[in-house]
Amino acid sequence: MKIFLDxxxxxxxxxxxxxxxxxxQFIRLCLxxxxxxxxxxxxxxxxxxxxxxxxxxxxKRIMLVSRIPILxxxxxxxxxxxxxxxxxxSKIADLIIHPEFRTVLNCAVNQVVLFHDFMHFEKPSLxxxxxxxxxxxxxxxxxxxxxxxxxxxxxxYTKKMALIRFPYxxxxxxxxxxxxxxxIGNTCTRRSPRPLNPxxxxxYVGSIEExxxxxxxxxxxxxxxxxxxxxxxxxxxxxxTERKKLNHVINQFNMQNNVIIHGLVSDGELVxxxxxxxxxxxxxxxxxxxxxxxxxxxxxxIVFAFNNSxxxxxxxxxxxxxxxxDFASWGKEIIxxxxxxxxxxxxxxxxxxxxxxxxxxxxxxxxxxxxxxIIASL
Length: 378
Known about the structure:
Layout: E1 3-6, H1 18-32, E2 39-43, H2 45-55, E3 62-64, H3 82-85, H4 87-92, E4 95-98, E5 111-115, H5 132-145, E6 150-153, H6 156-165, E7 174-176, E8 201-205, H7 214-219, H8 221-224, E9 231-235, H9 240-252, E10 259-263, H10 267-276, E11 279-282, H11 291-298, E12 302-306, H12 311-315, E13 320-322, H13 327-339, H14 341-355, H15 360-377
Parallel strand pairs: 1-2, 1-4, 2-3, 4-5, 5-6, 6-7, 8-9, 8-11, 9-10, 11-12, 12-13
Helix pairs in contact: 11-14
């Protein structure tokens, strides 16, 4: 039996967030699973060096496929011409595992696909594609992916969206398997948490894309931050255009002394920022899963978010929820926590307890059990 894990998406995921993080987790999962000599990896040349250097995977286990044409070389077109590029692999594979939906093949080979979200079909403000041509490309690839024999959704919300978009699917054809955080507070070097004080420190981790709602949050910081000395630290990938928009909003609302833009940071620096923060703000309007929420809770941080998509499913009672755009409710709750240290500590412990359900080891146990059943059936 030959089992192939598709790792080609790593060509676009240099910051280990989102899908790229999940691909790395799948590599570690498959290496620790009992696949033995049956395990192989699909990779492009740039990804091959990552597999060899970071994971010490022998070259004989890496099956190279050509990169997509240079004109289409972006993650938007990841999976372009995959039927042709993967043609030799599809002839010998017994099972292909796709941590990302766009490389599913249009052939009879057994395939597992993980769905992260269906945002491409939502309104542009919620992460959907603005151009009709791109929406059609995504729809074509997604329709092919949902026909894969084995389908995984990373949340019940994602499964619900799949069944709405593709009504012919049977609910039992999609298995919900939650993800896990790549690193969490109780597995990292921990510093003593900063004492809670009126000059509380806040943190946001994620991109600045429209659906994340960060610009809107900054425009309302005067009702969120408890005083003028509080700081909001922004961590995550940011383009030059996004930084320009961000600085414009910061200047417009006189938040120059309150907002610190870090961009991408090392794991060590991210751990320090998580440890130093008192509260984690996550104003996203739609999420397929929300890994930063898990990371923040694992450090005992109180997460503030909006009641939409999968956030309540992942955070349950540990997350402070408000309706979309209701930043004033956040501000009131923050003042309550600052005035009641015992309530703050209780909520922080609840956050840690909730995050433990989504540790990487818990994720590996869920997925290994699932893969074992598939392999036994084959």
